[in-house]
Amino acid sequence: MKIDTNTMVSITEANQNFSKVARLVDEHGTAVILKNNVPRYLVIDFSKVERDSVASDNDIMNLSKRLIEQNREAYEVLAK
């Protein structure tokens, strides 16, 4: 995952000014909250999570078919 340094906020600043974090998410889609100068928390737009986290049935079937074709020989050995 690439992190835009413009979206990084210290945990202290996020605690004192959460509206800034929300603005960053609105503008960039995500914000990273640092704890002890290490990325610790990711704030992301909820609609982006729903859109990105659900794979369609068609995508799953295509992936499954491709894996079966790539590994057909191994599956045939295991089927015996």
What would you say about this model in short?
It is built from 5 helices and 3 strands; from the N terminus they run E-H-H-E-E-H-H-H.
Would you kindly provide a written description of the structure presented here, covering whatever features stand out?
The chain has helices at 11-16, 18-28, 46-53, 57-70, 72-79; strands at residues 8-10, 30-35, 38-44. The mean pLDDT is 87. Strands 1-2-3 form a 3-stranded mixed β-sheet. The protein is of the alpha+beta class and 80 residues long. The chain folds into 2 domains: 1-44, 3-Layer(aba) Sandwich (YefM-like fold); 55-80. It is 59% helix and 20% strand. Strand 2 (30-35) and strand 3 (38-44) form a beta hairpin.
Helix and strand arrangement:
Layout: E1 8-10, H1 11-16, H2 18-28, E2 30-35, E3 38-44, H3 46-53, H4 57-70, H5 72-79
Parallel strand pairs: 1-2
Antiparallel strand pairs: 2-3
Number of helices: 5
Percent helix range:
55-70%
CATH class of the largest domain, please?
A: Alpha Beta
- The total number of structural domains is 2
Give me the CATH architecture of the largest domain, please. 3-Layer(aba) Sandwich
At the fold tier of CATH, the topology name of the largest domain is YefM-like fold
Distance between the termini: 42 Å
Give the strand content: 15-25%
Basic shape: elongated
Helix/strand order, N-terminal first? EHHEEHHH
Calculate the mean pLDDT score and round it: 87
Low-confidence stretches: none
- Number of distinct beta strands: 3
Alpha-beta content class = alpha+beta
